[in-house]
Design goal:
Elements: H1 2-17, H2 46-57, E1 64-66, E2 76-80, E3 83-86, E4 89-93, E5 96-100, E6 104-107, E7 116-125, E8 130-137, E9 150-151, E10 155-165, E11 171-175, E12 178-179, E13 194-201, E14 204-207, E15 212-215, E16 223-225, E17 230-238, E18 249-257, E19 261-272, E20 279-282, E21 286-290, E22 295-303, E23 311-319, E24 331-342
Parallel strand pairs: 1-12
Antiparallel strand pairs: 2-3, 3-6, 4-5, 7-8, 7-10, 9-10, 10-11, 13-24, 14-15, 14-17, 16-24, 17-23, 18-22, 18-24, 19-20, 19-21, 19-23
Length: about 350
């Protein structure tokens, strides 16, 4: 009977210990120290401070620790001879804050056998209850830098710099600082929206009147759309992933004209996902006044129904075989501006 009860107890115990909300597995800190809830009457421990600092300031405690922009960032240099100098600065080593307000110098040992490696670390020492700068040197002639010690609760080191020293002696320094990285992430709702612009180039076109392809020319740059013809260009681009649905997307055609006059054009926009329904819109004929030898943004179209990652097809046509087009010369079609609102 006792064995049966013991077996039942051993099965039941994990359910109690690991269940819904015991004080061992869950805690919060920095409440008033009044004995209510997690507000311990005896104050907060060093371990509680350390895990709070680690949680807020280090994503990877094995490398990160230097506070960027605090004093002189704990930069390591060789001011001359066999001296290593660590500038002022601060940081956090495994949750333990550290500050140094002045230069700290170390003297490297000049090797006799061959070039030797070294490492300068910031060490948290639980026995000494300190965080201090420490120079680690390899054995004479060992090129590799010494490794770091990382045992929580005993010794934890993060690297500031590594390097070598030759028998000359000559010192080489390699910066190895990794800065504190807050363990937070701002979602789209916390980042102000902003307008962005990308350019979609027109690479080839087609002369519908003559049934011929149109290719880029070197000078002036663009697709030459001649007078008295109907010519068009098509290009493809994905709706940017950071586009905010429901906001304006503006497609604007860009041309350069060989003469002044009125440009008669049309613009069509299609968009949709793979295997999805294709939305098609068109502006109809639009007349824009242009002056020779200048870039002009013409025939802009605004729409709001697209979604991020949809394939966007843009088509521009110069309809020059009508009286509305008075340029009487070729027009170089360059491409399209795409303006949109991004969520970051």
């Amino acid at each position: 009977m006792h064995r049966v009860l013991l077996a039942i107890f051993l099965v039941f115990l994990p359910l109690v210990a690991g269940g819904g909300g015991d004080s061992v597995s869950q805690e919060s800190i920095f409440w008033p120290t009044d004995g209510v809830g997690d507000g311990t009457a005896t104050g907060y421990t060093s371990d509680q401070w350390k895990w709070a600092m680690r949680m807020m300031w280090t994503v990877d405690p094995t490398t990160e620790g230097v506070a960027l922009g605090f004093l002189n960032d704990l930069g390591v240099t060789n001011p001359g001879g066999v001296t290593l100098r660590v500038a002022s600065g601060g940081g956090v080593v495994y949750g333990l804050p550290y500050r140094n307000t002045a230069n700290v110098d170390f003297t490297l040992t000049t090797p006799v056998i061959n070039t030797t490696g070294w490492r300068l670390v910031l060490r948290a020492d639980w026995a000494a209850q300190t965080v201090r700068l420490v120079l680690l040197e390899s054995a004479d002639g060992v090129l590799a830098a010494p490794g770091v010690t990382q045992t929580a609760g005993v010794t934890w080191e993060i690297t500031l710099a590594t390097g070598t020293i030759t028998v000359v002696p000559a010192v080489a320094v390699t910066d190895a600082r990794a800065y504190l990285e807050p363990g937070i992430q701002l979602g789209p709702g916390r980042i102000a929206n902003r307008t962005r612009r990308i350019f979609v180039s027109a690479d080839t076109g087609y002369n519908l009147t003559d049934g011929t392809d149109i290719f880029q020319t070197v000078s002036p740059t663009g697709l030459p759309f001649p007078d008295d013809k109907v010519c068009h260009a098509t290009s493809f681009v994905a709706v940017p992933k950071d586009y905010v649905p429901g906001t304006d997307i503006i497609i604007t055609s860009v041309v350069e004209s060989a003469a002044s006059g009125n440009l008669n054009s049309a613009l069509a926009v299609s968009y949709g996902l793979c295997a999805g329904v294709l939305s098609v819109t068109a502006t109809g004929n639009v007349v824009d006044a242009v002056i020779l030898n200048r870039f002009y943004c013409v025939n802009a179209y605004t729409f709001t129904n697209a979604l991020p990652d949809q394939l966007l097809v843009v088509e521009f046509a110069r309809i020059a075989n009508v009286a509305a087009d008075t340029i009487n010369d070729s027009v170089q079609f360059v491409g399209w501006y795409l303006d949109y609102t991004a969520d970051s």
